[in-house]
Amino acid sequence: MLKLYNTLTKEKEVFEPIDKENNLVRIYSCGLTVYNYAHIGNMRTYIFMDLLRKVLKYDGYKLKHCMNITDVGHLTSDADEGEDKMAKSAREQHKSVYEIAKMYTEAYQADFKKLNIEDTEVLAKATDHIKEMEEYVKEIIANGYAYETSKGAYFDTSKLPKYGRYLTNNNADELKDGARIEVDPEKKNPKDFALWIKAPAEHIMKWDSFMGLCYPGWHIECSAMSRKYLGEQFDIHTGGVDHIPIHHENEIAQSIGATGCIPAKTWMHVEFLQINGGKMSKSLHNVYTITDLEKEGIEALAYRYFTFSAHYRTKLNFTWDSIKAAQVALNRLREATKQHKNGTAVADKAKIEEYTKRFEDAINDDINMPLVMAVVWDTAREKDKSKEYYDLLMKFDTILSLDLDKEEKQESYSDEINAILEERKQARANKDFTKSDELRDKLKELGYEVKDTRDGQILNKI
Ligand code: AMP
Ligand code: ZN
Q1: Ligand 1 contact, 45 CB (< 6 A)
Q2: What distances in angstroms separate CA 202 from CA 74, 80, 205, 209, 351, one per listed residue?
Q3: What is the chain's alpha carbon radius of gyration, rounded to the nearest angstrom?
């Protein structure tokens, strides 16, 4: 019995699809804005999305899952202010907005492949759905939930008493007029947000529409595309926690304006990845990509493994030590899997059943990956090496997608260093810490600092 936490109700609920007859689950995931390289924080959210898909499939459901690509510029702030992100990136890189979109789409798709994030059934580009968005806006206006100003069409938030509080407990009035939002005297309420914006002459991406040359506000694409592919009401909507207070509240407002209903039954949000206990930011030079990890000898899948160390609803802290430890652990897990593959012992049937049950309980308990990994390790560490444990691990890997069957990645250290590491491992096993410290110094002379982690020794270049 699958239970999922729903931000809308603040409860872990038993999951049942709307389309029970076909056992079909319809999901929408907010995709990337393709104006820059996606970072490992973004990837945490999409690895979770992929886990959700694979858990649902493991449980026997069929999927219709739509993810969008935002290739129309959002404005740089949430509040319809500032410069268009796509246009800014294009200007800075002397490229067209379409070249920018193509380049960063290809880049994130390459990362998804390396992370074993499988394709969704539908991948919808915003620029391919401008007509659908226009229609959606027209419906909201026709239903009396939006009005026109000299700048464009705005959603009238005063029409929804619960606006801004569907997913959060925000007191909508706390957002004081102009606190973050430039007061626009034409707007009826400061929190009203743009649905359809009249394009100034210099604006690059614009389309002919019922209001002249316009471009869409940044929330409307998800409402229009989710309805087109999944219907007015679908099962699950995913995104990162930053989407809760504005983007998803606005999606809900738009759907109520157009169709009268909240679009998704279950809303799932992934907590943020932090770096060294704080925010990732360009000014701190700590916005890392999968390519940055690879440059340090870390496999993309080691990052996937790393994200399993915390439940998706808790913050996860990235450090170089922890990602290196994750690579070491993943190597070990693959090595253990290989030993079972070549094993000739007969597995204990009761254990196979127990591990299977523990695994299924953990995935079905709101996708509790730390618990899942505990079971995976218990299976891998079984003393009796048996093909049946290997088969079980490979079954688990249909969700984990860590390529457990892959040959262990060889550390690319010299024979001399590998020999010292082995000797030091023995010394530590024998509790000969004097020897272990001597070897630590020897490694230092060779340019490496050694750290002892739960998963073994890791080396950092000095
Ligand atoms: P964006 O392209 O900014 O819309 O981001 C794409 C996805 O990544 C969204 O679902 C965000 O919520 C999510 N995201 C952004 N930063 C982080 C982070 N540090 N940790 C986890 N998810 C994030
Ligand atoms: Zn969205």
Answers
A1: yes
A2: 16, 17, 9, 17, 67
A3: 25
Closest CA to 322 of 335, 307, 300, 301: 307
Q: Which of 27, 32, 40, 42, when mutated, tests ligand 1's pocket best, judged by the most ligand atoms within 8 Å of its CB?
A: 42
Q: Is 349 exposed, middle or buried (0-12, 13-18, 19+ CB in 10 A)?
A: exposed
Establish whether residue 417 lines the binding site of ligand 1, counting it when its CB lies within 6 angstroms of any ligand atom. Answer: no
- Please tell me the residue having the least CA distance from ligand 1 atom 12: 240
Structure confidence by residue, pLDDT tens digits, 54-112 = 999 999 999 999 999 999 876 555 555 566 788 888 888 888 888 999 999 999 999 99
Using CA positions, which residue lies closest to atom 4 of ligand 1? Answer: 32
> Can you give the pTM of this predicted structure?
0.88
Q: In the numeric block, which tokens belong to residue 115?
A: 């992370």
8-state DSSP, 164: T
Q: What is the CATH number of domain 3-270?
A: 3.40.50.620
CATH of domain 275-400: 1.20.120.640
Domain locations along the chain: 3-270, 275-400, 415-461
From the alpha carbon of 31, which atom of ligand 1 is closest? Answer: 6
β partners of residue 19: 24
Q: Distance between CA 56 and CA 23 in Å, rounded?
A: 10
Angle between helices 387-400 and 349-364 (to 10 degrees): 10
Tell me: the pLDDT tens digits for 283-302?
A: 788 999 999 999 999 999 99
Find out whether the beta carbon of 280 lies less than 6 Å from any atom of ligand 1.
yes
